[in-house]
């Protein structure tokens, strides 16, 4: 979506051009059966190409590629910890992009396009701010009950005020 698409054919035998492949999750529908077979074959190759029994280097995630790692054990541990943290963040990011793509039709889509949500009932309430709009990650307002929303909003304001005072009470001494 951001950089454009490659010119030419993705699969000349199938007559599939890069420009014909939609962005996001909709691209999955364009993968031919032979493509799925290639993907599965590569996954199987990656799984069985090295011994990964407990105690082996591959089991510990060391596949002998030292360009981005180090021979120093402390440095290697530091880099592997960073890799694990970055991998976790990337997993959360891609799931978020899949979710947004499924709801708005684009991984970079505008949440305003998702109008089927009962959360839209609270979009004009006090505290709703760009860029996320009405934010309820736990889904407490999924039922659309105005009465429950108002009770929770009053509780939120009360707890916010107490937390601000507690923070000042912690910092001041």
Write out key terms for the chains shown.
single chain; 173 residues; two-stranded antiparallel ribbon; 2 strands
Summarize the structure.
This protein is 43% helix and 3% strand. The chain has helices at residues 33-48, 73-104, 146-171; strands spanning 9-11, 16-17.
Please write the string of helix (H) and strand (E) elements.
Answer: EEHHH
Helix content: 40-55%
* Principal-axes shape call: flat
Number of helical elements:
3
- Span from first to last CA? 52 Å
> What is the strand tally?
2
Portion of residues in beta strands equals under 5%
What is the SS-derived class? mainly alpha
Global mean pLDDT: 79
Q: Profile the largest sheet.
A: 2 strands, antiparallel
Uncertain spans: none
InterPro entries: Chloro_AB-bd_pln, Chloroa_b-bind
Keywords: Chloroplast, Photosynthesis, Plastid
Protein name: Caroteno-chlorophyll a-c-binding protein
Organism: Cladocopium goreaui
How would you describe this structure to a colleague?
Strand 1 and strand 2 form a beta hairpin. The chain has helices spanning 33-48, 73-104, 146-171, and strands spanning 9-11, 16-17. With 173 residues, it is an all-alpha fold. The mean pLDDT is 79. The radius of gyration is 25 Å and the shape is flat. Strands 1-2 form a two-stranded antiparallel sheet. It is built from three helices and two strands.
Q: Could you give the topology of this structure?
A:
Blueprint: E1 9-11, E2 16-17, H1 33-48, H2 73-104, H3 146-171
Keywords: Chloroplast, Photosynthesis, Plastid
Pfam family, one: Chloroa_b-bind
GO biological process, one term: photosynthesis, light harvesting
């Amino acid at each position: 979506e951001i950089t454009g698409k490659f010119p030419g054919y993705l699969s000349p035998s199938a007559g599939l051009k890069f420009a014909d492949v939609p962005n996001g999750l909709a691209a999955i529908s364009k993968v031919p059966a032979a493509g799925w077979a290639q993907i599965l074959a590569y996954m199987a190759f990656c799984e069985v190409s090295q011994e990964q029994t407990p105690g082996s280097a591959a089991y510990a995630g060391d596949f002998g590629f030292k360009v981005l790692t180090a021979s120093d054990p402390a440095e290697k541990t530091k880099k592997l910890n960073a890799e694990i943290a970055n991998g976790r963040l990337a997993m959360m990011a891609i799931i978020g992009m899949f979710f947004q793509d499924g709801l708005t039709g684009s991984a970079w889509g505008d949440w305003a396009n998702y109008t089927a949500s009962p959360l839209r009932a609270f979009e004009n309430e006090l505290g709703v701010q760009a860029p996320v709009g009405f934010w309820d990650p736990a889904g407490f307002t999924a039922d659309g009950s105005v009465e429950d929303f108002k009770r929770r909003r009053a509780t939120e304001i009360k707890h916010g005020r107490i937390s601000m005072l507690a923070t000042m009470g912690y910092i001041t001494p």
